Automatic annotation (TrEMBL), chain B:
The keyword Lipid metabolism does not apply. Belongs to the UreF family. This is Urease accessory protein UreF. It comes from the Bacteria. It comes from Paractinoplanes ovalisporus. UreD, UreF and UreG form a complex that acts as a GTP-hydrolysis-dependent molecular chaperone, activating the urease apoprotein by helping to assemble the nickel containing metallocenter of UreC. The UreE protein probably delivers the nickel.
TrEMBL record, chain C:
It is found in: Cytoplasm. It comes from Paractinoplanes ovalisporus. Keywords: Chaperone, Cytoplasm, Nickel insertion. The lineage of its organism: Bacteria, Bacillati, Actinomycetota, Actinomycetes, Micromonosporales. Belongs to the UreD family. InterPro entries: UreD. Its main location: cytoplasm. Transmembrane segments: none annotated. This is Urease accessory protein UreD. UreD, UreF and UreG form a complex that acts as a GTP-hydrolysis-dependent molecular chaperone, activating the urease apoprotein by helping to assemble the nickel containing metallocenter of UreC. The UreE protein probably delivers the nickel. Required for maturation of urease via the functional incorporation of the urease nickel metallocenter.
C-alpha cells in the first residue's frame, strides 16, 4: 500500500502537484518565461474578460451577517449557476461548516482559508492564499460562473483587492447602530453594493432606516444600497438579483 | 547583485502568503511550550539552526543552479517528513512564485515548489546570488514565526524584533556556509531536523480551530 | 578504538536465512541469537572520543535479518584531545530482502561528543524497519553532544534525509522547535510504509513520507514514553518470528 493514498500528499515524480491539488488543466501563463511587466500596467487580468468566474467579495464587520448572506445566495443561485465559495473566517472551517451544515452547498464547493490573525491582509494586501483557493476550486470543479469570497469579520476599513475580486459587497447591520453609514470608511463608501442587513431588528435597537438610507446615499453617490432581512427573505432577493445582473452582463448569451 | 532587490525580496510585506503561517509557532504555543519571550527566543534559535539552515542551503543551491529545481525540490521532500509541513512549504513556494512573476522574469519551473527552492529560483531571476538567497531564506524562517509570536502571545513587538536582531549574525553565518556549499550534491546538503516542528505540524493540521495555516 | 564489523544475510534456498558473513571486532561485537536474529552485544561502555566504528549490513534477496542489541550504547567523553567518536552504519537491502534494525537506545552522557552516520539503501521490493532512540543525558545529567546523520534511500531515490544535533553545542536544541523539555526521542522508519498516519497523543506522530515510507517520531521527557509510543508499531513481522 502506498502511504500517499492515506494522506493525499505530494510524492513520486516531479514536478509535484500541491497536496490535494488536482491539475487537469495546463497553466500556460505560469509555465512560460515572460518579459518584465510594464510598471504602468496592472498585472492582473482585466475584469470581465476571459472564461474565469465572476468573483464577488463579501466583507463587513463581525456579526453583520456575511455568512448568512452567503448561505442565502447559495440557496438562491446554487441551482441556476456554477457556484463556489471561499471563506476567510479566522476560525478556519467555522464558516465553511456553517454552509455545509445548512446544506446549501456541497463540501467540495467550499474552501476555507486561514488568515493568521489578519483577515484584511488576506483579502487586500496579500491575496495569495485566496487566489490559490479560487484556482484550486476551478481546477477541481471545472469552469465556474461565480465565486463568492467571504472575508473574515473585520472593521469598516477592510476592502478587497481588485486583484482578487471583480465586485465587492459590504455588509453592515442595523444592530451595529444607524450611524455606521455616516461614519463611512472604505467599505461603506466604495463597495459596489452596500447591504444594510437585519432590518427586522431596527425597531428593537432604535435604528432609523431612513437615516441610514440618507447617509448611505450621501456617502456612496450612485453606488447601490439595499436593505435586507434574511429572516424575512431567505434567498436575499435584491442581492441575488444584483449578482444575476453581473453574471448575465459578463457571459454573452450563447 | 542589487541590495535593493534583496530588500524587496525579503520584505515581510511581499505578498507571498507568509502572514498566514506561524512557522510552527502556533502548535508550540498551544502545547504550552512557548508562553514568553525567552521561549520564543529558544524556539527561533532552534528553528534557525535546523529549518533555517536547510532553507538557506536549498535557496542558495537553487539560486546557483536553478535548472536543478526538480532534484532540489525532491531533496527538500526527503528532509520534510511531515506532510503538513510539505504542504505549507509548497503553498508558500507557490505564493512566492505568484508574486515574483509580477516582479522578474522567471524560468519555467513547477507551479508549487518548496518555498526555499522557489526562493532560490526567484533570487536568481532577480539578479541576486546564492548568499543573498540564503540570507533571505534564513531570515524568513525566523521573521514569520516572530511576527506570529507578536500576534499569538501579544508580546512586545520591540522585544521580539530585538530577538531577530540578535539572530542576524547567525543568519549571516548560515548564509555564508550555504553559499559555500551551493554546488554540493543534493544528498550532501544540510538536513538538520527539528522533531517538534514535525510533530507539532501534524498535530496542528488536525485542529478544527486554528488561526494560522501552519 | 577502531572496529569494523560486518554481517551479510542471504537466503538459504529453503525459505530461511543464512549468515554468509558474521565478522565483528570489539566493541561492535555481533552474535547470532536466532534464525534471523543477530544481537550487538557491545564490549564495555562506549563509544568514547577517538572511537571509529563501522558496521556493514547486507541483506540479499529472500533473506530476513533482525539486528537487536543487548543494552543501551552509552556515549562517553573519553580523553578531550581525541576526535569525536564516530559510528557509521551502512546497510543494503536487496529486493525481496527484509531488514529490521531495532537496537536499544543511545545515551548521550554529559561531555560526550559523538556522531552516528547511517546510510541505508533499500532496493525496490525490499523491506525495512529502522529504529533509533536517543536519550539526552543519563538520569539527572546534562546531555552531551550527539549528532545523528541519516540517509535512507529506497528504489534509487532518497526517501529520508535527517540530521539531529543535541547537546550544549547544538543551538536551540532544547527550545520548542527541536526537543523542548524532551530528553528522549525515538524514530522508526518503515519502507515501504507499513502503518497508518496518526498524530498524538502527546508528542508523537506517524507521518507518510513524500516517497514510499513512513516515519514515526516520539519525543518525551524519558525513554519509557517513547518506547510506549513506538514499540507497538514494530512488532516483528511474520517473516521474523520464530
Amino acid at each position: 500500500m502506498h502511504p500517499e493514498n492515506q494522506h493525499s500528499v505530494a510524492g513520486g515524480a516531479l514536478p509535484h502537484p500541491s497536496d490535494g491539488y488536482v491539475a487537469p488543466h495546463s497553466h500556460g501563463p505560469d509555465e512560460v518565461p515572460h518579459t518584465h511587466p510594464d510598471p504602468g500596467v496592472d498585472p492582473h487580468e482585466p475584469l470581465n474578460s476571459g472564461p474565469r468566474a465572476l468573483r464577488v467579495g463579501i466583507g463587513g464587520p463581525v456579526g453583520s451577517g456575511k455568512t448568512a448572506l452567503v448561505a442565502a445566495l447559495c440557496r438562491a443561485l446554487g441551482d441556476e449557476m456554477r457556484l463556489a465559495v471561499v471563506t476567510n473566517d479566522i476560525y478556519t472551517t467555522e464558516d465553511a461548516d456553517f454552509l455545509l451544515r445548512n446544506g446549501v452547498l456541497p463540501a467540495d464547493r467550499v474552501r476555507a482559508v486561514e488568515t493568521g490573525c489578519c483577515p484584511h491582509t488576506a483579502i487586500r494586501d496579500d491575496i495569495s492564499a485566496n487566489l490559490d483557493a479560487v484556482e484550486d476550486l476551478e481546477a477541481a470543479l471545472g469552469p465556474l460562473d461565480l465565486v463568492l469570497v467571504e472575508s473574515g469579520g473585520d472593521n469598516l476599513t477592510a476592502t478587497f483587492s481588485k486583484g482578487l475580486i471583480d465586485q465587492q459587497i459590504f455588509v453592515v447591520d442595523v444592530a451595529g447602530g444607524d450611524k455606521v453609514p455616516r461614519k463611512g470608511g472604505p467599505g461603506v463608501t466604495t463597495a459596489d453594493l452596500l447591504v444594510i442587513n437585519k432590518t427586522d431588528l431596527a425597531p428593537m435597537v432604535g435604528a432609523d432606516l431612513s437615516v441610514m438610507d440618507h447617509d448611505a446615499k450621501a456617502r456612496r453617490g450612485d453606488l447601490p444600497t439595499v436593505f435586507l432581512s434574511l429572516v424575512e427573505d431567505r434567498t436575499a432577493t435584491p442581492v441575488a438579483d444584483w449578482i444575476r445582473g453581473l453574471v448575465a452582463a459578463r457571459v454573452p448569451a450563447a | 547583485m542589487s541590495l535593493a532587490s534583496l530588500l524587496v525580496l525579503a520584505d515581510g510585506r511581499l505578498p507571498s502568503g507568509g502572514h498566514a503561517h506561524s512557522g510552527g509557532l502556533e502548535a508550540q504555543v498551544s502545547a504550552g511550550r512557548v508562553r514568553d519571550l525567552d521561549a520564543v527566543a529558544g524556539f527561533l534559535r532552534g528553528k534557525l539552526a535546523t529549518a533555517g539552515l536547510v532553507a538557506a542551503a536549498f535557496a542558495a543551491a537553487s539560486c546557483a543552479r536553478p535548472g536543478e529545481w526538480a532534484s532540489l525540490d525532491q531533496g527538500l521532500d526527503s528532509r520534510t517528513p511531515s506532510p503538513a509541513l510539505r504542504k505549507a512549504s509548497r503553498a508558500q513556494g507557490r505564493a512566492l512564485l505568484r508574486a515574483a512573476r509580477a516582479m522578474w522574469s522567471l524560468p519555467p519551473v513547477g507551479r508549487d515548489l518548496h518555498q526555499p527552492v522557489a526562493l532560490g529560483v526567484v533570487a536568481h531571476a532577480g539578479g541576486l546570488g546564492p548568499e543573498e538567497a540564503a540570507v533571505a531564506a534564513a531570515h524568513g524562517t525566523t521573521s514569520g514565526a516572530a511576527s506570529a509570536a507578536v500576534r499569538l502571545l501579544g508580546l512586545d513587538p520591540y522585544a521580539v524584533h530585538g530577538l531577530l536582531a540578535r539572530l542576524t549574525a547567525d543568519c549571516d553565518r548560515i548564509a555564508a556556509d550555504a553559499a559555500a556549499r551551493a554546488e554540493s550534491p543534493v544528498d550532501d546538503l544540510p538536513a538538520a531536523g527539528a522533531p517538534l516542528l514535525d510533530i507539532g505540524a501534524e498535530l496542528h493540521a488536525t485542529w478544527e480551530v486554528r488561526l494560522f495555516a501552519s | 578504538m577502531r572496529a569494523r564489523s560486518r554481517v551479510a544475510a542471504e537466503s538459504d534456498g529453503r525459505g530461511g536465512t543464512r549468515l554468509a558473513v558474521l565478522r565483528s571486532e570489539s566493541p561492535l561485537l555481533l552474535r547470532r541469537t536466532g534464525p534471523h536474529t543477530v544481537h550487538l552485544v557491545g564490549g564495555g561502555a562506549g563509544p568514547l572520543r577517538g572511537d571509529d566504528l563501522r558496521l556493514d549490513i547486507s541483506v540479499a534477496p529472500g533473506a530476513a535479518l533482525e539486528i537487536l542489541s543487548v543494552a543501551a550504547q552509552l556515549a562517553l567523553p573519553g580523553q578531550a584531545h581525541l576526535p569525536q567518536s564516530r559510528l557509521e552504519i551502512h546497510a543494503t537491502v536487496a529486493s525481496g530482502g527484509t531488514l529490521r534494525w531495532w537496537p536499544e537506545p543511545m545515551i548521550a552522557a554529559a561531555g560526550c561528543n559523538h556522531l552516528t552516520v547511517t546510510r541505508v539503501d533499500v532496493a525496490e521490493g525490499g523491506s525495512l524497519l529502522w529504529r533509533d532512540d536517543l536519550v539526552c543525558g543519563r538520569h539527572g545529567e546534562d546531555s552531551g553532544d550527539v549528532r545523528t546523520d541519516t540517509t535512507i534511500r529506497y528504489a534509487g531515490s532518497t526517501l529520508y534525509r535527517h540530521e539531529l544535533s543535541v547537546g550544549p553545542h547544538a543551538p536551540g536544541w532544547s527550545g520548542a522547535a527541536v526537543l523542548g523539555d524532551g530528553r528522549a526521542i525515538g524514530t522508526l522508519i518503515s519502507a515501504p510504509g507499513a502503518f497508518p498516519a496518526t498524530a498524538g497523543p502527546g508528542d508523537f506522530a506517524v507521518m507518510p513520507l513524500a516517497g514510499p515510507g513512513m516515519l514515526a517520531t516520539a519525543v518525551a521527557p524519558d525513554i519509557r514514553a517513547v518506547q510506549a509510543a513506538l514499540d507497538p508499531l514494530g512488532k516483528p513481522t511474520a517473516t521474523l518470528t520464530h
